[in-house]
Structures are given as structure tokens and as C-alpha cells.
């Protein structure tokens, strides 16, 4: 998981906890962070902007009332809220509150949140942490070359030119560094 998305998720978790404690400002923070995604879920199901807006409003009313029921150990905040959005949209389909052009309940059922499940996110985070830990065990030159190539997307030729070393040397540093990185990762699993 990217550091920015991890930070965003942690901010959202903190806002959920603040909302559960009764802080009104937290609802505004949660709305700003999630409304576009949740509106998209409602709109895909209902196929009507006004109905999607109404369903979204229901989501935040429900959140206000039930924020204390959120358990960060069971789901990410956005997954939990996406489930609310999907359910509110389907509820509107069931009671016939939607306009012509919306999809039927059976078509709405398979609409899923694209966010990975919580256990997948934890596995990804652990693997990311392991990669960074193993990178720190490498010598400085191969470590910096690997970071630049793989995290910044630069070519070996660009890195070699910037570092003032022959391309073959740069490729050797990266190759040997990747071998050590692989061995370190395998020892940790």
C-alpha cells in the first residue's frame, strides 16, 4: 500500500473514532474524504443523480447514528461505508423510490467495492514493510539504484548517467542487490 493511501486510511479511521465520540466536525472530514466514491456506488446502482444524492444522504445519516458500531479490526472505513452506500441504494430499489432507468435489485447485487479486503491490505502492508526492511540491509549504491529504478521509475541508463558510472556497473549493482533482496524476503516468509 502506498504511504499516501495508508495515511488517508488512518486519517479516516481517526475521523470515524472522533465521530463515534460525538465530534460533529469529524462527519465533515469523513464526507470530504468519501462522498465521491460513495456517490459513485449509489449512482451505479440507481442510475439517477437525484436518487443517488438521496441515498448518499441516507448513508451519512446512518453513519451519524451508528459511527460507534464501526470496528476497524473488521473492515477499512471506506469498505464499511461502501457497504452502507450499496445497501441504501438497494433499499431504495426495494421500496420503489427510484425513477425510471435504474437497475433492478438483482443487477445491483453484484456491484462491489473495488477496495481490497482488510486481510489483503494487511498482507500487502506486511510485504511492503518487509521490502523496505530488506532494502535497508543492502549496501548504499545498490539500495539507492534499486529505489530509484523501481520507486521512481527511472531507467538503468538514466541512473548510471546521473551517478557517473558505466551502465554495466549500474546493472550489476541492481542485479546483485535484487538477488540479496530476494534472499532477505525469502528468509522473512
UniProtKB/TrEMBL annotation:
Q: Which residues form the RNA polymerase sigma-70 region domain?
A: 31-94
Transmembrane intervals: none
For this protein, the record's CDD domains field holds: Sigma70_r4 (cd06171)
Identify the Gene3D superfamilies for this entry.
1.10.1740.10, Winged helix-like DNA-binding domain superfamily/Winged helix DNA-binding domain
Q: Which InterPro entries does the UniProt entry name for this protein?
A: RNA_pol_sigma-70-like (IPR039425), RNA_pol_sigma-70_dom (IPR014284), RNA_pol_sigma70_r2 (IPR007627), RNA_pol_sigma70_r4_t2 (IPR013249), RNA_pol_sigma_r2 (IPR013325), RNA_pol_sigma_r3/r4-like (IPR013324), WH-like_DNA-bd_sf (IPR036388)
**Taxonomically, which superkingdom?**
Bacteria
Keyword rRNA-binding set for record: no
The segment(s) forming the RNA polymerase sigma factor 70 region 4 type domain are: 130-181
Is Metal-binding there in the keyword field? Answer: no
Query: Cross-referenced Pfam families, in alphabetical order?
Result: Sigma70_r2, Sigma70_r4_2
The protein's UniProt keywords, in alphabetical order, are: Sigma factor, Transcription, Transcription regulation
Record's family? Answer: Belongs to the sigma-70 factor family. ECF subfamily.
Q: Which PANTHER family match?
A: RNA POLYMERASE ECF-TYPE SIGMA FACTO, RNA POLYMERASE SIGMA FACTOR SIGZ
Q: What is this protein called?
A: Sigma-70 family RNA polymerase sigma factor
